[in-house]
């Protein structure tokens, strides 16, 4: 007799982590699309379509020139075929006859799409305590609670709208944290970005609502290049949430976004992401290539940035939300859960650049790899020579499921003064037969067992998420690893 | 043999792991109300036997059969065996980071409730149930909010196993070296817990190296295991004899 139960155990685990993607539908809608390919002409066309001021066209052209001189970074622990940048559509927008005055004029098909994704934009059903900017392919289709927020002097709108309404703020801050030529993908984004969100919190204002952007890629051949810019003035505070999904196609779509945060004296931003782009099928076909540059500048004394991310989607994830701790007594935090399955590859982590004295940073990264996936943490803690009395704590934990998954940790630490305290902890564990057997012996079924092990492993991160998002993150893991937390 | 009374029957069981045969023509019958102790030198197959009963996937059954309450359990998954009433107190209980002991215990309890079509209990009801059981093993309720076995001392881990045994109230409890690594006070506490658990409709299988546990829990039979089978069976007196003479004389 062969070892049956062993086999059953293994198939069960495989089955569990192979749940289908619930957001894989696409919306059929009339679109305004420009022809495939990227040239100076494309950049000019995008700018023209968006009726942008001259400074922005210059910004884009400069970026395009830089991009042409650069090449794709190859240092990530990622393997994927050459991306053909001429085979991508750089602008795809739902066609609308006239300029929309409010959300009631948005195409009902689009509203329904977001409804289906759990994001309601209509007056009656929208989330009571979260303002949402919804981005569909290349454009923002609507922002909720805009008027209510403007009473506080808060600007929350699509970045296109901000470009025409607050050009001076955009000119001042766009590209100030992530320079055009920072990397290959930031140059590309700077040349062709189509929309995104802008948020400005004036001095002494604590934003009364959580703000949120929901990104949806719909078109099969278009890339999504969005930009988010958040500025918080002295003593202000905001909680920002970002969600993303895409339909299921057997080809790969490119997503190259930039998020820039600027935080002044004693202000703080908490930026949370639940990334659930389509990750490809179980044979590694299709899925989003996700190359994202996220960086925040703690410019003033006592300012604070906390990045929290739950990364479960994308075929390729290349993403390092970072903090430049320029002011004295600044604080940078990075909390991450990255779950990869099948042939997904994630190379993600953070950079903490300590410039100010007594600046502090904290990194907690949890990687879960299943199937044949590769999951790497890559971090850089850089303490400059005037950053006296600084502290960093890093913790990187990896959890392996099954026999064919892969976990790596690449921590780089550079310290240039002797008054710094650095701690680094790392662990790798495996959901082993013994652990599952323990649950089973107590009568707990295998699904629940794996789910409990994983949610236990991620607990430190989930407690950092805002309430609405913690539930979503839980749902997400539930989706991938069915069942409910007991 | 009175099959009405027999809870567990192991017949000519042959088991291997990685092509290594561990159990050879192993036979054992345990009736309700009996306490059996299995002793024997290291590597004789005692722990293997306990895991095979619970359905550990690493072992291959070459031939033979295991009957529990009259039917074969070889095809049953570990969780199904657990529901039927087989409990294994582990020699090395597993740590589960981030999962609270209370959640774990409640989930285990409710899984069994569900299996028997009984109502699952909510966290508040469960607190009443578990607090009562905590007393049997002399544990404070603070211990419920800690993560399962994480950072527990050796004694605490073993007490946690006994707590689960009492909570699930299984008919057959297999205790794999539950006494090892315990100081005398912890041993007494655990023995009290085990004796409280035991009654005429249940059975206990003790796997132990030392006679001292048997001072507190009096076995009906003592078996000596060697090279994958039982080579001698006797009364509780046998354990005392073994303590003095060792195993060599039996060869």
Compact overview of the structure:
With 486 residues, chain A is α/β, with parallel strands linked by helices.
Could you describe the 3D structure shown?
Chain A has helices spanning 4-16, 40-49, 54-69, 108-116, 146-150, 159-165, 167-173, 184-192, 433-441, 446-462, 467-480; strands at residues 31-33, 92-94, 130-136, 139-143, 155-158, 195-201, 210-216, 226-232, 237-245, 252-263, 268-275, 287-298, 304-311, 316-319, 322-325, 331-340, 345-354, 360-369, 374-383, 391-401, 406-415, 421-431. Chain A is of the alpha/beta class. Chain A folds into 2 domains: 19-275 and 286-309, no CATH class; 325-428, no CATH class. Chain A has a 10-stranded mixed β-sheet with strand order 4-3-7-9-11-13-16-18-20-22. In chain A, strand 3 and strand 4 (139-143) form a beta hairpin. Chain B has 251 residues and is an alpha/beta fold. Chain B has one domain (6-250): 3-Layer(aba) Sandwich (Rossmann fold), CATH 3.40.50.300. Chain B has 8 helices and 10 strands. Chain B has helices at residues 46-54, 78-84, 101-115, 123-136, 154-168, 184-197, 213-216, 236-245; strands at residues 6-17, 20-31, 35-39, 60-68, 71-72, 86-89, 172-176, 203-207, 221-226, 229-234. Chain B is globular. Chain B starts with 5 loop residues before the first strand and ends in a 6-residue tail after the last helix. Classes of the chains: A alpha/beta (486), B alpha/beta (251). Chains A and B meet through helix 1, helix 9 and helix 10 of A and strand 4, helix 2 and helix 3 of B.
Give the key terms:
heterodimer, A: about 475 residues, alpha/beta, 2 domains, ten-stranded mixed β-sheet, 11 helices, globular, disordered C terminus, B: about 250 residues, Rossmann fold, six-stranded mixed β-sheet, four-stranded antiparallel β-sheet
* The CATH class of chain B: Alpha Beta
* Largest sheet descriptor of chain A: 10 strands, mixed
Instruction: State the helical fraction of chain A.
Output: 10-25%
DSSP, total strands of chain B:
10
Q: What's the name of the CATH homologous superfamily of chain B?
A: P-loop containing nucleotide triphosphate hydrolases
Rough shape of chain B? globular
Strand content bin of chain A: 35-45%
Radius of gyration of chain B, in Å, reads 18 Å
CATH topology of chain B: Rossmann fold
Continuous helix count of chain A: 11
């Amino acid at each position: 007799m062969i070892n049956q139960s062993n086999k059953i155990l293994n198939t069960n685990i495989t089955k569990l982590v192979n749940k289908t993607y619930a957001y894989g539908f696409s919306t059929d809608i009339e679109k305004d699309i420009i022809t495939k390919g990227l040239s100076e002409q494309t950049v000019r066309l995008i700018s023209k379509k968006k009726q942008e001021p001259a400074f922005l066209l210059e910004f884009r052209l400069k970026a395009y020139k830089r991009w042409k001189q650069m090449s794709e970074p190859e240092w990530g622990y990622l393997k994927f075929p050459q991306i053909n940048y001429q085979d991508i559509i750089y602008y795809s927008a739902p066609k609308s006859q006239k300029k929309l005055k409010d959300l009631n004029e948005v195409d009902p098909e689009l509203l329904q799409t977001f409804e289906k994704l759990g994001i309601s934009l209509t007056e009656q059903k929208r989330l009571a305590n979260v303002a949402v900017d919804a981005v569909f392919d290349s454009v923002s289709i609507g922002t909720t609670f805009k008027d209510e927020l403007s009473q506080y002097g808060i600007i929350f709108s699509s970045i296109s709208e901000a470009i025409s309404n607050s050009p001076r703020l955009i000119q001042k801050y766009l590209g100030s944290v992530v320079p055009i030529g920072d990397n290959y993908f930031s140059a590309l984004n700077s040349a062709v970005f189509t929309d995104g969100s802008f948020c400005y919190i004036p001095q002494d204002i604590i934003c009364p609502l959580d703000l949120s952007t929901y990104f949806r890629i719909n078109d099969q051949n278009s890339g999504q290049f969005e930009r988010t810019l958040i500025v918080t003035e002295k003593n202000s505070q905001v909680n920002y949430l970002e969600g993303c999904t895409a339909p299921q196609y057997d080809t790969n779509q490119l997503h190259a976004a930039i998020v820039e945060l600027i935080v002044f004296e004693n202000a703080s931003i908490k930026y949370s992401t639940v990334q659930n782009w389509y990750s490809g099928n179980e044979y590694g076909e299709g899925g989003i290539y996700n190359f994202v540059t996220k960086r925040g500048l703690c410019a003033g004394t006592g300012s604070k940035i906390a990045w929290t991310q739950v990364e479960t989607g994308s075929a390729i994830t290349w993403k390092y939300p970072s903090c430049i701790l320029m002011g004295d007594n600044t604080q940078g935090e990075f909390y991450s859960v990255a779950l990869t399955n099948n042939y997904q590859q994630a190379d993600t982590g953070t950079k903490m650049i300590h410039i100010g004295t007594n600046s502090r940073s904290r990194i907690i990264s949890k990687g879960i790899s299943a199937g044949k996936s590769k999951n790497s943490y890559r971090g850089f803690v850089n303490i400059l020579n005037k950053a006296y009395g600084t502290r960093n704590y890093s913790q990187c934990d990896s959890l392996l499921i099954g026999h064919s998954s892969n976990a790596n940790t690449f921590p780089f630490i550079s310290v240039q003064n002797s008054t710094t305290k650095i701690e680094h902890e790392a662990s790798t564990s495996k959901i082993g037969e013994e652990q599952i057997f323990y649950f089973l012996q107590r009568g707990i079924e295998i699904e629940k067992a794996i789910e409990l092990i994983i949610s236990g492993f991620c607990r430190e991160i989930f407690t950092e998420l805002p309430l609405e998002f913690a539930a979503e993150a839980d749902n997400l893991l539930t989706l991938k690893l069915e069942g409910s937390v007991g | 043999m009175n099959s009405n009374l027999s809870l567990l029957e192991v017949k000519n069981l042959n088991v291997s792991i990685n092509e290594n045969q561990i159990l050879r023509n192993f036979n054992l019958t345990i009736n309700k109300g009996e306490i059996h102790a299995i002793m024997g030198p290291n590597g004789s197959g005692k722990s293997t036997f306990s895991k095979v009963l619970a359905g550990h996937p690493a072992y291959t059954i070459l031939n033979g059969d295991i009957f529990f309450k009259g039917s074969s359990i070889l095809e049953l998954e570990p969780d199904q065996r657990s529901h039927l009433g087989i409990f294994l107190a582990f020699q090395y209980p597993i740590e589960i980071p981030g999962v609270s002991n209370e959640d774990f215990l409640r989930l285990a309890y409710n899984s069994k409730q569900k299996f028997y079509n009984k109502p699952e209990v909510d966290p508040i009801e469960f607190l009443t149930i578990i607090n009562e059981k905590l007393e049997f093993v002399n544990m404070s309720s603070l211990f419920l909010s800690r993560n399962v076995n994480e950072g527990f001392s050796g004694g605490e881990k073993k007490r946690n196993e006994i707590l689960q045994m009492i909570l699930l109230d299984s008919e057959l409890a297999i205790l794999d070296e539950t006494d090892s690594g315990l100081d005398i006070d912890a041993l007494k506490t655990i023995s009290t817990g085990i004796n409280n658990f035991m009654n005429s409709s249940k059975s206990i299988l003790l796997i132990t190296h030392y006679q001292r546990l048997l001072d507190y829990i009096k076995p009906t039979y003592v078996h000596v295991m060697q090279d994958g089978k039982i080579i001698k069976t006797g009364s509780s007196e046998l354990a005392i004899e073994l303590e003095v003479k060792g195993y060599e004389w039996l060869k």
